[in-house]
Amino acid sequence: MSSLSSLTLLAFITGTLLLVDANRVRRVKLINPTELNNSYFTEENCKPESDGTCLYTDACDCQPTLPGDFMRLKGYFFSPEHGECVQSKYGLEEGTCNRFETFLECYKKCERKLRRAGHIKKRKN
């Protein structure tokens, strides 16, 4: 097999495994961010870098930014209190590292990474 075919096959298998892993995750909780216990959000450096990148191991502990009066973007964030990615009931503002457009993005960058590192326990389904 050529190296390009091998890489394509590897990418396909990796993508499939990620989807299977995410599929095992139960339905996403819908959370009102104003009812969260703020003591779980311990990270202070929560603004993205000038190039838009974030340090996700720490940013997963950032408090999500609540929406203003007009802008309510659908968003997911990692809740250290619940140990999983959740959806904001009222949307989230942009401008914090702990805000993701999709559940899968949140899962990959926070929940799965922290679970593998042993920082959060396996969920009961």
Automatic annotation (TrEMBL):
Which keywords fit this entry according to its UniProt record? Signal
The secretion signal range is 1-22
Q: Which Pfam families match?
A: Kunitz_BPTI (PF00014)
- Report the SMART domains cross-referenced here: KU
Gene Ontology MF, one: serine-type endopeptidase inhibitor activity
Q: Which segments constitute the BPTI/Kunitz inhibitor domain?
A: 58-111
Cross-referenced InterPro entries, in alphabetical order? Kunitz_BPTI (IPR002223), Kunitz_BPTI_sf (IPR036880)
Name of protein: PaPiliN-like protein
UniProt source species: Amblyomma americanum
